[in-house]
Amino acid sequence: MPTLGGMAREISDLELVPHAFTAALAQLRSVEPRPEIELLEAPAPAKLAPHAVAITADLYTSAVAESEVATGRFVLLYDPAGHDAWEGEFRCVTFVRAELEFEMGDDPLLPEVGWSWLMDALKNRGVEFTAPSGTVTRVSSEAFGQLAERDRSYEIEIRASWTAFGDFDRHLEAWCDLISYSAGLPPLPEGVSALTPRKTKSVVR
Fold first, then answer.
1. Is 100's pLDDT higher than 90?
2. In the sheet where 129-141 sits, what is the strand order?
3. Averaged pLDDT score across all residues of the chain
4. How sure is the predictor about 138, in pLDDT bands with cuts at 50, 70 and 90?
5. Where along the chain do its domains lie?
6. Of all residues in the chain, what percent carry a pLDDT higher than 70?
7. Which end of the chain is more exposed for a tag (fewer CB within 10 A), N or C?
8. Confidence (pTM)
C-alpha cells in the first residue's frame, strides 16, 4: 500500500524531510471525508516544489463504480525557502470536475457560482489563506450520429490554488466540501454521517 506523499525513501532519507512538511502530512492523514468520497494517494509532481504530496478524490452516489459523479486532485506544495509568488511556504493546487444537472449547466452565472463554492468552503472551515487564483470552466457535450438521441450534458471544471498557513487537514476538508458542492450534495450537519457507502476504504489515513 502506498504511503501518503508518494515518496519511497530509505529511513536515513526521511531525516532530510523538514518537520513542517511531515507535520502537514500528519494533518492530512487525519482527514475523514464524508462516506461518498474516496481519497487515494497519487504520484506527486516533482518539479513544482522541493516537497509535495498529491491526493485524488472520487465521489460516488452509491457503491457502484459507474455512479461516480465527481473527481479531483489536491496537491500540497512546500518550499522551505518561501516563494514570492505564493506569499508563503505552502501552496494548495487543486482540480475538481463534476457532472451537472442541465438547469445548472445552462446557467450563465455558473463560473461565478463555482468560484463562490471554493471561497465559501475555505471560509466555512475557518482556514487562513491568501493569494487565491484559478479558473472555472463549463464543458458542454453534444451528441451526434447514432448518439444524437442523447441529451446535451454539462460538466464543471474548477482549477484553483491558494497559499495555506497551517491547519492543512481543514484545507483538505474544505476541498472535499467543494467536490460535494460541485456534485450537488447537501452539506452534512456537524456530527452527522451520510448513509451512502464509499466504494472502497480511503487510504489517506
1. no
2. 37-42, 51-60, 68-83, 88-100, 153-164, 129-141
3. 80
4. confident
5. 11-182
6. 71
7. N
8. 0.80
With cut-offs at 50, 70 and 90, classify the pLDDT of residue 129.
Answer: very high
> Cell 502530512 identifies what position?
25
State how far the Cα of 109 lies from the Cα of 138, in Å rounded to an integer: 10
| 187-199: average pLDDT | 49
Contact by Cβ (8 Å): 53, 4: yes
Residue type for position 15:
E
- 3-state secondary structure string across the chain: CCCCCCCCCCHHHHCCCCHHHHHHHHHHHCCCCCCCEEEEEECCCCCCCCEEEEEEEEEECCCCHHHEEEEEEEEEEEEEEEECCCCEEEEEEEEEEEEECHHHHCCCCHHHHHHHHHHHHHHHCCCCEEEEEEEEEEEEECCCHHHCCCCCEEEEEEEEEEEECCCHHHHHHHHHHHHHHHCCCCCCCCCCCCCCCCCCCCCCC
